[in-house]
């Protein structure tokens, strides 16, 4: 006959759980050398992917796209594409597209006081937004606008429009009654824009550190 469990001061039986048997994990099938090679290969792949992604940070209109996605729901409302809503959507698209184009003509430099100063690049040089007499604007050749700036501005605008037109709220108001045709077009249009812009971006790398980009 098994002994009864002990009681505490309140008269409640105290049960002690039996010790559980631990199961040894199965032996590892990969050797330490193979594991190190696998980790090294994965690390190289991740670093290569991140390096390519970091280059796209200066190219994709992330700030403009975020603003567009925040303002669009208030304009679209409950889904009634009125004349006023359609005009406001066209105005929003124009403003955001101009923003993508404009910001690729901005650049920055570090002043002697350690602050970052932004300006607009022109064929004659950089025009600082808030010029001061104490700060001397660099006269380097890189601060002059050229063909590469126009290529990047057009690519940025194309990327934004391809993403914006992929939203059904835009196509429903701008192209009413052509939803099926627009769905077929937008299945391949963003991919074509991405391939073309990626190729041009590799041919004309971005060297600007303008508004919304990484600091110089």
Automatic annotation (TrEMBL):
Gene Ontology biological process terms in this record: endomembrane system organization
Membrane topology field: Multi-pass membrane protein
Coiled-coil region(s): none
Name the UniProt record assigns to this protein: Uncharacterized protein
Chain residue ranges for the region called Disordered: 1-36
Cellular component aspect of the GO annotation: cytoplasm; membrane
Organism: Helianthus annuus
Record flagged with keyword Signal: no
């Amino acid at each position: 006959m098994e002994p009864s469990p002990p009681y505490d001061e309140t008269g409640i039986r105290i049960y002690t759980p039996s010790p559980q048997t631990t199961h040894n994990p199965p032996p590892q099938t990969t050797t330490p050398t193979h594991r190190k090679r696998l980790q090294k290969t994965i690390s190289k792949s991740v670093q290569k992917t991140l390096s390519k992604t970091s280059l796209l940070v200066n190219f994709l209109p992330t700030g403009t796209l975020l603003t567009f996605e925040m303002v669009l729901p208030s304009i679209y409302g409950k889904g009634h594409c009125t004349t006023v809503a359609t005009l406001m959507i066209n105005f929003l698209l124009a403003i955001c597209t101009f923003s993508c184009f404009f910001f690729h003509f901005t650049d920055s430099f570090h002043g002697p006081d350690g602050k970052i100063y932004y300006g607009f690049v022109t064929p004659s040089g950089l025009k600082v937004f808030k010029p001061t007499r104490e700060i001397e604007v660099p006269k380097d050749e890189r601060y002059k606008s050229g063909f590469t700036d126009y290529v990047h501005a057009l690519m940025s605008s194309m990327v934004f429009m391809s993403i914006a037109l992929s939203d059904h709220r835009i196509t429903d108001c701008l192209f009413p009654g052509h939803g099926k045709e627009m769905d077929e077009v937008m299945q391949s249009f963003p991919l074509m824009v991405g391939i073309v812009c990626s190729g041009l971006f590799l041919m004309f790398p971005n060297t600007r550190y303008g508004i919304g980009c990484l600091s110089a």
